[in-house]
Amino acid sequence: MPRPTKFRRVEFFPENNYFVPIGKSKCELEEIVLKVEELEAMRLKDIEELNQEECAKRMKVSRQTFQNIIDGARKKVAMALTEGKAINISGGHYTTNHCKFKCMDCGTMYHINYEQDKSSCPDCGSQSVMCSKKAEFCGRWCHGQNIR
Prior knowledge:
By secondary structure, this protein is an alpha/beta fold.
């Protein structure tokens, strides 16, 4: 059985998460899903110009895992640009320090690991959880208005 995937730490979420080529109708448009951690890898390496070791450290993954993430991201973006496909930035296996959730039953405050902890408390399993900030980016993200 393979090891469980470690959550990748993400510090940035885009204001816009869907990009389409001009001149294609929706019925003929194909879509490529770029995971949130893939966008983060490209941002750290290509925009912040960090070396691979620094990028891996910021995302809390190994250098090899970082390389695999960025290789996949660059391939997806290149395919979208050369084949005229839409890019949908969503999903993935990541965690963030932007958002703390609170369990309304046991009172636990925790940073979320996106897939699991957004809907239930990691301590008691209660589904009565909510974002503790409810502001700016965090509020949009927690309510699914921007990043899913």
